Amino acid sequence: MDFPLNPGCEPIIDLHSDAYFMGEALRQAQRAYAADEVPIGAVITHQGRVIARAFNQVEQLQDATAHAEMLAITQAESVLGNWRLNECELFVTKEPCPMCAGAIVHVRLARVVFGCPDPKGGGAGGLFNILQSPSLNHRCEITSSVRLDECRGLLRSFFGEKRRGERE
């Protein structure tokens, strides 16, 4: 007797999909939100496994460079014992800024997947495309708008509360 691979037709969760890993980044962004930080989260994977998780901690650490991407990069370097992350992928809820994009190129990440584009200040195709600049020594593959509505919604909610004075 043959058994259906998916009884009840429930969606199968692909634990190596962009959507799955963006969900992990969204969980980090929610931690930032709860800490009254701009809700951006990031994870870095290596061979399909999460090796670093981080969220924005600029206010908490009083460090302008404490973006989710920067903190995740530092963790991943420590885990691998190498500053080169050329076999790794970054999943982040918002398009990296130029500072983070510069670090991403420097550590040679293979791919960057982000949720919400930033046309006014992004470094991965929004304002600039540092990640694929032909004049730099490394270029990253880019995948954008993964789980866009959730990523954008979290940012809109946070800044909407800030404008109304609810998060002070």
Considering DSSP H and I runs of 4 or more, what fraction of the residues is helical?
25-40%
> Which structural class should the secondary elements be placed in?
alpha/beta
Strand/helix succession: HEEHHEHEEH
* Mass-distribution shape: globular
Radius of gyration from the CA trace? 17 Å
Number of strands: 5
Report what the structure shows:
It is a single chain. The chain is α/β, with parallel strands linked by helices. 36% of the residues lie in helices and 17% in strands. It is built from five helices and five strands; from the N terminus they run αββααβαββα. Strand 1 and strand 2 (49-55) form a beta hairpin. It starts with 17 loop residues before the first helix and ends with a helix.
Short structural summary:
The chain is of the alpha/beta class and 168 residues long. 36% of the residues lie in helices and 17% in strands. A 5-stranded mixed sheet has the order 2-1-3-4-5.
